[in-house]
Amino acid sequence: QVQLVESGGGLVQPGGSLRLSCAVSGSTLSISAMRWYRQAPGKQRELVASVTRAGTKNYADSTEGRFTISRDNAKNTMYLQMNLLKPEDTAVYYCNAVIWYAGAWSNYWGQGTQVTVSS
Predict the structure, then answer these.
(1) Are 115 and 40 in contact (CB under 8 A)?
(2) Bridge partners (DSSP) listed for residue 115
(3) Cβ contacts of 36 within 8 Å, gap of 6 or more
(4) Distance between CA 97 and CA 25 in Å, rounded?
């Protein structure tokens, strides 16, 4: 069974930094694209950043220049380094991955980790 487990969320002051991690466990054969999403209260889930297996990265306009996505394919782990955090970055952050498992490519989600930016 495939599981995605996020960690690293918490409370931080505006201008501060946090580093999120997403570890994929299970008998995975291959992980394709990996992404970070977030969902603030009362808002739709939005894409924050994505990274392909080859390392091509894309960012939402609101996070480019402040957030950095990365992955370690040997460890089946993805990261999100978040700098210069703003109150509007407050949300539950979810990791997402496209994984080859049980004979098919499927979309998997983590349980989410809360990030709160407040003074």
Answers:
(1) no
(2) 10, 91
(3) 20, 22, 47, 48, 49, 50, 69, 78, 80, 93, 94, 95, 96
(4) 12
Q: What is the mean pLDDT of residues 30-41?
A: 96
Q: Which residue reads 């539950």 in tokens?
A: 92
- Residues 89-119 have pLDDT tens digits of 999 999 999 999 888 999 999 999 999 999 9
| Dihedral angle over CA of 21, 26, 29, 34, nearest 10 | -20
Tell me which residue of 72, 7, 61 sits closest to 34, measured CA to CA. Answer: 72
17 token code pair: 């930094």
Q: Is 79 helix (H, G, I), strand (E, B) or coil?
A: strand
The β-bridge partners of 101 are 104
Q: What is the pLDDT of residues 39-93, one digit of tens each?
A: 999 999 999 999 999 999 999 999 999 999 999 999 999 999 999 999 999 999 9
Q: Are 113 and 6 in contact (CB under 8 A)?
A: yes
